Structure formats: C-alpha cells, structure tokens
Amino acid sequence: MIVAGALLAAAVPQSSHGVASVLIALVAILVATKVLGELAQRFGQPAVLGELIAGVLLGGSVLGLVDPAEPTIAVMAELGVITLLFAIGMETELASLMRVGSSAASVAVAGVVIPLALGYYAGTALGLSELSALVCGAALCATSVGITARVLSELGWLDTNEGRVILGAAVIDDIIGLIILAIISAVVAGATPNVASVTRIAGVAISFVTLAVVVGGLVAAPLFRLVERIRAANALGLFGLAFAFFLAWLAERFGSAMIVGAFAAGLVLHRLPQRHDVERATTTIGHFLVPVFFAAVGAAVDLRALADPKALTLGAVLIATGIVGKIAAGFTPWWFRGDKLFIGIGMVPRGEVGLIFARMGLAAGAVSSGEYGALMLMVLVTTFVTPPALAWRARRHARREAGPDRPGQGGIDDLVAGTRPIDRARRSPKAS
User: What phi and psi, each to the nearest 5 degrees, are found at residue 367?
Assistant: First the structure.
C-alpha cells in the first residue's frame, strides 16, 4: 500500500490543482481506507483505526496525496461527519438517551473541567505562558464524537447504557467546547469575555437542540407522510438527508455546531415509520463520505512538528493529563451501575475537535510551533489509542447477539462495517 501510494504520489505533479488533484486524492482515500480498515479488523481492531492510519500515510507527513485544508476535501470531510452523526442519531432513542441524561451531563462537565485544569497547571509548571497553557488546557477538553461513535457502533455498544452516556456526554462536550472556543478566541484577541456573552452562547446552543427536537418532531411526521406520495425513486431517503443537512446548516447559523444539528435530525427521524428508507440513502452516501472524514483527520497530523524534544516532553505530559482527566470523568456518576472505565476510555479521543483548538492557537500566535507540535502529538495519541482500548474493554464482557439493526436495510451497522456481521458486546444493566 505504501509503495503504491509513493508511486501514485510521484506520478502526480506537485503543482496540479482543481478537479484532477481532488480526484486522485479521493482515489487514494477510498482505496487506502478500505484496505487498511479491513486489515485493522483482521487484527481484531475497529476499522476506524485503519482509516485514521490511512489518513496519516496519505497526508503531508508521508505521501502528500491528501491535503485536509483543500476546500473540496474539507467540505466532503464535513459532510462525512454530518452524515455519520445523522445516522447515529437515527439509531438513538431519545427516551433512552434521556434516561442516562444525568450521567451524561456529569461525565461531560467533569470531562471539561478536569482536563482543562490539569492541562493549564501542567503547562504553567513546564514554563508556558498563561495564554499558551490556557490553549493547551482547552484543547484537552474536546471529545471527538464522530470517532467515538464510529467505534461504539463497530463494537456493538452504541445501544448500551454506556454507549448512550458516552454519546450524550460527547454531544454536550461539543456544546461546552463551542463556549470555551469563543472565550479563548476572545482572550487571544485581547478582549475580556463577560458573563453576558458566555450566557448568550450557552443559551443559543442549548435552545437550538431543544427546539430542533421539539419542533422537528412536530413537523417531520406530516412532512414525510407527504413525501411518501412522491413516486420518484429514493424520494424519502433524499428528503431525509436534506432534512439533516438543513438542521446542520440551521445549527451553524444559530451559533451551534453542524454535527449537533445533524444528530438532532437523526433523533427526530428515529421515531418515524419511514426511518429505514432514510437509512438506506444515508448508508449509500456514508460509504463514500465518512471515510473522507476519517482520512482528513489523520492527514491533518503533522509528524514533522514532533521533532522538537521540548515538544515531545510537553506532548507526553498533555497525553497523560488528557487521558487521566477523561477517564476520571467517566467515574463521576457514582450512581451509574455500568462500566465506568469503558465510558472514560470512550471520552478520550480528541480527533478533529482538538485540532481546531490547536490550529486556532497557532494562527493567533498563542502557541509556538513546538507547543503546536505537542498538541498535535496529544491529538494523535489520544485518537489512535481509543479504538483498540475500547475493543480490549469490550472483549472483557460477554458477547451478545446482533442488535435491532436490520442487515441489508441500511442503518449504522452497514454504514460503518459494510455487510460483515458484527459481534456485539453485552448489554449493560439499566442506569439507576
């Protein structure tokens, strides 16, 4: 695979632009993610691990075939994570998610506060300025809901209480992350954020999710009954995707995250009888777009930024504090009777969310290139250790039969694993 990629990279002119360069990048992404994803599964690991490795190999650090900052690739990657979160939302029952709401909220808040504090104090102890230490601590707050949700689905833990807690906490983390990102951006720009601005950002994010679920639930049922009368092929599936893209756009317009809107759209459509028609269309487009997202996350990792010994030292400290902080957060809901270590591990990957904080700090001059390299190392390690760690923890539990997804009819299983049967981990006891 590496030899073929090197030959392909040599055959493509470095100055090529436009459609041709995008096409060759897509060829590399689709082939490499499929091959390495299959290889990862043969070694007992989730396919997403292979897809992330494919992204690193295809990125600027090795072969230089994929530039995640290229506008077309960046848009396709964003569409990929939107599609993934929409599919996951359709597999998530809102009532079940609400039953573990207090546990998810506890994990989310602790998963922000503990890593932020540990990262800030570790940074200042290593001689970083207060602003640099604050950016490092903020980057530790993130959780990549896309990566974790993909692994949970592959392992068959998406419909367990642990899976629901992780998913709910990761979504809440995104909302809190938006608030922190706005605060850090204001601090970097020299402004002093006040209580009113922070309250406004938080209120908009929370209000959007609530309104999207409530209003969307009232509108979706009659809308899709009307769409059923359209005799055009795949009309229901295409309207379902349009519904998800619209809520994602609306979320961004209201100052929230697009993936939050897509997840809310999935929650709304979960209860509809037309759900499986929408899932088939989502699966089809997801097979194309979702690998682009994971490859782009891997390609964004710059291995050359890790050459500085100081960056390696800071990176090692950030990795330790980042992992410890998230795992500790998994144990905060003492009333929850499930596997708290599994929850903590599921909150570890920073992925593309951590990269956003790192890039923001570098662009604003809040962190140096060495400190940026340390943040990249933290993102890389926390993203790559999570899939095998979750797989190891899942194997410690008794396997169970396949869940409610219907093979061949779309759904998250087909989206993340093709047609291969997936061994499921045991269902956990209900949260108290």
Answer: -130, 150
